[in-house]
Write a structure and sequence with these properties.
Number of domains: 2
Number of strands: 22
CATH topology of the largest domain: Metal Binding Protein, Guanine Nucleotide Exchange Factor, Chain A
CATH class of the largest domain: Mainly Beta
Structural class: mainly beta
Distance between the termini: 38 Å
Protein name: DUF427 domain-containing protein
Organism: Paenibacillus anaericanus
Domain DUF427: 16-108, 142-232
Pfam families: NTP_transf_9 (PF04248)
Strand order of the largest sheet: 12-15-16-20-19-18-17
Strand content: over 45%
Largest sheet: 7 strands, antiparallel
Radius of gyration: 22 Å
Number of helices: 1
CATH architecture of the largest domain: Beta Complex
Length: 268
């Protein structure tokens, strides 16, 4: 029998509040952060800390094998409506009692999320995740289709729980003549908004293979304007040794069990 833990509900010590249509629709110092294997963490709010007067009950429902039946509500503020943007497990199944009667919101259906007075983006922050951006003297060589596209002895190496190690290089150490900026942008709750470039090597375009945080959030200033390549799409050599297999985890529960952790390896 598997002893894997699939759900964990933690009381979050931070005040979390949510805005929609100019109104604060949830504001709580007693939020539960729910961790579910294979999923990003989710904030759940106690009933007393949400604006139920702005909720419109829906006949929509969904089923979850770990939590039970979810009931839904829409948000209505003036003329603005966000359909089925709220859900709650009013009678969760055994093992999920901690979120009974709590309410959660689809992240992208509201206007803004805050922890204390700092706006946060993309998804709930995971207290089990750590992000360190460390200046290094390691020799980093990046190769695409046999062509060296970057080489540096002054990288910033980002160690982020659950994410492959990333190597951020000064733009002066990257073949800018091979890069062309694209319109793609993505956001990260721990680093900010990333801009992207494609690389053209041997007349082949490798789309959005490089990114940079031109204005990272204040907690991670070391990567400002540095460039990073998708390790899984290039060959990366660290101090002359080719990087091996990389691993991704979406939830802290994916690496809570020691026997599930993949130890990174390098091969010659």
């Amino acid at each position: 029998m598997s002893n894997k833990k699939n759900l964990q509900a933690d009381l979050n010590p931070r005040r979390v509040h949510v805005k929609f249509g100019g109104e604060t629709i949830a504001d709580s110092k007693n939020v539960i952060t729910l961790h579910e294997r294979g999923h990003l963490p989710v904030y759940y709010f106690p009933e007393s800390d949400v604006r139920k007067d702005l909720f419109v009950e829906s006949d929509h429902s969904t089923e979850c094998g770990l939590k039970g039946t979810a009931s839904y509500w829409s948000i209505k503020v003036g003329d603005r409506v966000a359909e089925n943007a709220i859900w709650s497990y009013q009678n969760p199944i055994a093992g999920s009692e901690a979120i009974k009667g709590y309410y959660s919101f689809y992240w992208d259906q509201v206007d803004a999320w805050f922890e204390e007075e700092e706006e946060i983006f993309v998804h709930a922050r995971d207290p089990y995740k750590r992000v360190d951006a460390l200046r290094s003297s390691r020799h980093i060589l990046v190769v695409i289709d046999g062509v060296t596209v970057a080489e540096s002895n002054r990288p910033v190496i980002v160690f982020e729980t659950g994410v492959p190690v990333r190597y951020y290089l000064p733009k002066e150490d990257v073949r800018q003549d091979l890069l062309s900026e694209t319109t793609l942008q993505t956001s990260c709750p721990y680093k900010g908004t990333a801009s992207y470039w494609s690389a053209t090597v041997n007349e082949k375009i490798h789309e959005n293979i490089v990114w940079s945080y031109l204005n990272p959030i204040p907690e991670i200033p070391n990567i400002k304007e540095y460039l990073s390549f998708y390790n899984e799409r290039v060959e990366t050599y660290i101090d002359g040794v080719k990087e091996g297999e990389i691993s991704w985890y979406r939830s802290a529960l994916d690496f809570f069990n020691a026997n599930e952790i993949k130890i990174p390896t390098v091969t010659a």
